[in-house]
Amino acid sequence: MSDHLPPPPVTAPPPAPAVDLWDAVDDLCAWLDANRPVEGREGLLLRILKLSEEVGEVAEAVIGATGQNPRKGTTHTWDGVRSELCDVAVTALVALRTLTPDAREVFARHLARVTHRSLGAPRPDPSDG
After folding, report:
1. Are 63 and 69 in contact (CB under 8 A)?
2. Measured between alpha carbons, how far is 121 from 117 in angstroms, rounded to an integer?
3. CA distance 13 to 59
4. Which residues, given as ranges, of the chain have pLDDT below 50?
5. How far from 7 is each of 1, 4, 12, CA to CA, in Å?
6. ∠ CA 48-51-54 to the nearest 5 degrees?
7. Contact in structure between 93 and 103 (CB atoms under 8 Å)
8. What confidence score (pLDDT) does residue 102 get?
9. pLDDT value for 2
10. Whole-angstrom Cα distance, residue 59 to residue 84?
11. Cβ-count burial of 38 within 10 angstroms (0-12 exposed, 13-18 middle, 19+ buried)?
């Protein structure tokens, strides 16, 4: 008999909870509106500038995941990079929703144009979903 135990079975992670993207964006936008310290045009511009901060955090995570800073070494993981990229996407969608209540439609039309331009795919009707 061997002293080595077989590896434990590999199990898939539990599925992520079902969250409607645009309902969540609306909720986040409303929460930010209710708690913003700066109003008006300046508040709007600061919300859009938040996107630059999040992009910088992606860069920091990539540098940390690749160990490109010899003084710090490897400080991040690729899971961290993925998380930061999600923060960028959420921040961009919240900024878009701040600019227009029709963010879902604006984004769907834009995505259809980019897809068509890049892939030559037929443009889906944004009202089909």
Report:
1. yes
2. 8
3. 27
4. 1-2
5. 16, 9, 15
6. 155
7. yes
8. 97
9. 47
10. 9
11. exposed
Residue with tokens 């310290």, as numbered in its chain = 37
CA distance 103 to 25: 9
Say how far apart CA 39 and CA 45 lie, in whole Å. Answer: 10
> pLDDT tens for residues 109-129?
999 999 999 998 565 566 665
- The torsion defined by the Cα of 124, 112, 51 and 17, in degrees rounded to 10, comes to 20
Model confidence pLDDT, tens digit, residues 21-37: 999 999 999 999 999 99
**What's the token pair of residue 58?**
């992606």
List, in order, residues 6 or more apart from 36 with CB less than 8 Å away. 43, 47
Q: What is the C-alpha to C-alpha distance for residues 18 and 126, in angstroms, rounded to an integer?
A: 22
- Among the listed residues 94, 118, 107, 106, the one whose alpha carbon sits nearest the alpha carbon of residue 44: 94
**How many CB atoms sit inside 10 A of residue 91's CB?**
19
57 token code pair = 């955090």
Local structure of residue 54 (DSSP, 8 states)? H
